[in-house]
Amino acid sequence: MSRIATLLEYYADPFVRERILEYCGATDGAGPTCVDLAGLTDHARRIVTWGRAPRYETTQLDTLLASGADISRSIWDAASLLIHLDFDYQNSDSPGEAYHHPAEVFFKLEPAYRAAQHVFHRFGLPLLTLMTGRGYHFTGQVPLDSPVVDRLAALAPGPPRWLATLPARRPPWLTAELSERHAKAHVGAGMLVEYLAHRILRRAEPRSPIPLVLNGVIVGTGLAGRECTSIDLSYAGDPMDVRHLRVAFGAYQKHRFRPDIVAHRGASERPPFIAVPRGDESLEHLLSHGREFAHAARAARLRSTRLPVVTSGIAALLDAYAASRLAHSHRQFYASPRRDVAEGDALFRALPASLPGCVTRPLVTPNDWLLQPTSLQHVTRALMADGMPPRDIAAIVHARYAADCGWGRRWAWLDAETRAEFDVRVFAGLIEAGVDRAIDFNCTSAQEKDLCPRLPCGLDLRVDRDRLLEAVPA
Q1: 374, 358 in Cβ contact below 8 A?
Q2: Range of the structural domain that residue 31 is part of
Q3: Looking at the structure, do residues 349 and 306 belong to the same domain, yes or no?
Q4: Are residues 17 and 161 both part of a single domain?
Q5: Cβ neighbours of residue 216 under 8 Å, at least 6 residues apart?
Q6: For the chain, is the Cβ count within 10 Å smaller at the N or the C terminus?
Q7: Helix (H) or strand (E) segment spanning residue 331
Q8: Is the same domain home to 365 and 276?
């Protein structure tokens, strides 16, 4: 194999292209089963995020490769329901830490990674593991003709509200149809992956040198800043048709596209990383050479990227979930009455004036305080401590999203009620399942997380913490 010096040379390798297509569902001589692709380049000269990424037909893969793009495939798949979970290293004080000191970062992630693999093995879930620029992606699939899809769909309280607005979001060239069964199964899969995350949290927390959180919550100050392992399933709170997964053997260039967050010229000038399957190679080797062009191209000759079928493992996970405290929390959440925007607004206006500023500020100025997972967790904890049912908290959040707060087209693209209910349900579920003991629900931590408005209020969040936990057994 000749020397590979550039990303375009790497993307020209036929084995690399084959593996990318395979990850997109192109197996056994058939074309991709993902319904579309998304691509990021630095050509637009603006802040580059996946939320703003253009979407492409799957037939345009060669165009994306020729442009040197970071490429992702749709979670929406025409043949299967995808099961997915992310791990990311997060440091709010040093966002580029994973690019400055990758060895230190990945060794901090290693206990959580091993805990995840233990849980996956326990349930028979051989998820394909990709090593990215600052963490891991774990993905598998359940064929749509499996009865397990019906079991997952049965977990959803009804068709997701975003399904009715899908035609308005769909590009004119996208002709795939999304069934109600598939959409409901996606919602159910999100609930099940939430339970999977709980199992990983319980096993990993005693072993991890850094805190673990869900969905990017900021933590308090530690030895190396506000660092943590974030287990991310936030995609399940958005319409399935708008979310994408980074492809196997594709480029990872966030450190190059976002020098504003890397804050270190040497790191932003690093070559692209390649998102490679972790396999059986040592972490030391993967960190030193594994994500480079030449190694990745060699690995593409040997490793399949076909998403593993995890039907039996998901069936076993469903059985365990059904008897869990989280399942009870979910049932209680959806058994509570659904409030419309007017009712949610009335609940907001009836909140007691005695609430601390760290709770009221996100509600009064929701853009963008109430979009931040840290604020949502804080509001959920505080209002649950006052005895409010989680679904009523979600109704308040939804009402604040519905208020005229300069949202632009955000809620035309996403679904405000789905987002509000998902986030509150996740944070309430952590408490009600006994996973979150709210050790950081105190004034010092609120200050370290930049939640406290730094105004004298005379209140002590430890009192609220005690009230919160009184109703929840350990």
Answers
A1: no
A2: 7-315
A3: no
A4: yes
A5: 88, 90, 230, 232, 234, 373
A6: C
A7: helix 325-335
A8: no
- Kindly list the strands in the beta sheet with 244-246, ordered across the sheet, starting from the edge strand earlier in the chain: 55-56, 37-40, 70-74, 244-246
> CB neighbours of 470 closer than 8 A, spacing ≥ 6?
none
Strands 251-252 and 128-131: unpaired
Measured in whole angstroms, the distance separating CA 152 from the mean position of its chain's CA atoms is 19
Q: Residues 72, 13: one domain?
A: yes
356 within 8 A of 457, measured Cβ to Cβ = yes
Average confidence (pLDDT) over 25-41: 95
- pLDDT tens by residue, 266-288: 566 788 999 999 988 899 999 98
The reply to whether 322 falls in a domain is no
Of the candidates 463, 437, 450, 423, which has an alpha carbon nearest to the alpha carbon of residue 219?
450
Query: Residue 29 domain-assigned?
Result: yes
How many separate helices (H) and strands (E) can be counted in the chain? Answer: 24, 12
Residue 469, burial from CB neighbour count under 10 angstroms (0-12, 13-18, 19+): middle
Average of per-residue pLDDT across 294-308: 96
pLDDT tens digits for 328-348? 999 999 999 999 999 999 999
pLDDT digit string (tens) for 131-150?
999 999 999 999 999 999 99
Residues 447 and 395 in one domain: yes
Q: Residue 414: is its pLDDT beyond 70?
A: yes
What is the sign of the dihedral through the CA atoms of 238, 242, 246 and 252? negative
